[in-house]
Every structure is written in C-alpha cells, then in structure tokens.
C-alpha cells in the first residue's frame, strides 16, 4: 500500500519523479513485476482485475531511466530498459534470438523460441512462446499456453484503466493470430491460424440453431476460426471480418493437441 500511495501521488504530480524516494518506489514496482510478485492484471474468480497503479509505475519508469548502450556479445542495443537475465536460475529456456525486457515475468518452464516479451508482461509456467511471437507490454499469459509462430499479443499501457490482452491457462493460439486491445481468450480455447480479435471484435458462436455473439471474449474450450459477416455501408454491402466459434475442444483432446487436430475434430478443412 505504501508503494501504491507513492505511485499515485507521483502520477498526479510528476515533479515528485525528481525525488529519490519516488524513483526508488517506481523501480521497486518494476522489480516486483520482474519477479512476478506484482501483476498488471490478476484473476479474481472468473473475472480479471486491472491494477491501474502498477501500469502507472511502468509508464513512469521510462522518464526516470537514462539511455545506455547494452552489449551482448557482438550485438549492441541502445535503450532505457535492461534485458532479463539469469535464465538458468529461473528455469527458463531461451533460444537465440529471443529477447525479454526487464520488468517482464517468465515463470519456470517457459520456452522462448526467437521471440519478444515486453515490460509488464506475465508469462506463466510451461508456456511456449514460439518463433517470432510477440508478447506486448502488460499482456497476461497463463499456464501451458502455446503461442504459435508469429502470434502477436498486443501491448497496452494507456489509458491506464484499459485491460491488457489476456490468454488464460491451456489455450492454443494458432500461427499469425493477432490478439489485441484487451481481448480475453478463455481457458483451453483453440484459436485458429490467422484469427484477429480486438476488444470489440464480433465473435459469433455458430454451433447452435441460432448464432450467439460475444465481443472481444472467447469462452473456455471454444474452437475459433476466421470468418466474416455482411455489413451495410453507404456505398453498399461488404464483408467485414469476425471470428467464428465452430465447436468445443473435446475432453479426449490432449492439452498439447496440435491446432490441426482440434480443427479436424470439428470437420473444418485445414
């Protein structure tokens, strides 16, 4: 609570960022994020709570940090934020050229193929961040999630009340999917390749006799593919993108199922 009070006061009066105790408080919050003891958002029952004051600390971390050169073997970077380190101690596998910034949390058993995890993100145990996948600032990724090649999880810092992108435990995210603007993917859901979901995207369940619509939320164990629907414009009717729920992940499906297997179970060509 003491940290939160200092952060809130500095957010309202940026002159306080010149004071030593405020600078140390901001850095303490980033350290807590880095170690996973604080989160930008956390599950509360079946919902999620956004800790706005933690996001404020992340935003205020940038102006108090000086630019510096970071040398990693023959590679050179010039930035305000250090890279994560001590991966062996953390129990995290990091394949060259994977990069995670200090202030991002990687739990034991995480595997990072050549990929990127930004400050404020939380990646829980056993999750695979596959080749060229990106986990944006403050994105929340659960246990045993598979982020396939080229997946993009959007980052969010402002506005501070905005929810981050949330991927719950056991979800499988297909290649080149784009999940941004505070969308939420439920536990063990399967997102097909190339699906784009924002916080306001139409997600239409077509498995029943009548369509059922969600906005920016995929329910647990749903199998989702790209779709489209007809929308009227002044110039005429055109197809606009949406996402379609075409089935449910079966109990017999292994938690590490391939995307193709999950889609074939629902009679969708892949």
UniProtKB/TrEMBL annotation:
Q: Indicate whether Ribosomal protein appears among the record's keywords.
A: no
Q: Which InterPro entries match?
A: Hexapep, Hexapep_transf_CS, THP_succinylTrfase_dom1, THP_succinylTrfase_N_sf, Trans_hexapeptide_repeat, Trimer_LpxA-like_sf
Q: Which Pfam families match?
A: Hexapep_2, THDPS_N_2
Q: Which UniProt keywords apply?
A: Acyltransferase, Amino-acid biosynthesis, Diaminopimelate biosynthesis, Lysine biosynthesis, Repeat, Transferase
The family database entries (SUPFAM superfamilies) matched by this protein are listed as: Trimeric LpxA-like enzymes
- Identify the stretch annotated as signal peptide in this record: none
User: Domain Tetrahydrodipicolinate-N-succinyltransferase chain A spans what residues?
Assistant: 3-64
What NCBIfam families is this protein classified in? PRK11830.1
Family per similarity comment = Belongs to the transferase hexapeptide repeat family.
Q: What is this protein called?
A: 2,3,4,5-tetrahydropyridine-2,6-dicarboxylate N-succinyltransferase
Species in which this protein is naturally found: Pontibacter amylolyticus
Phylogenetic lineage: Bacteria, Pseudomonadati, Bacteroidota, Cytophagia, Cytophagales
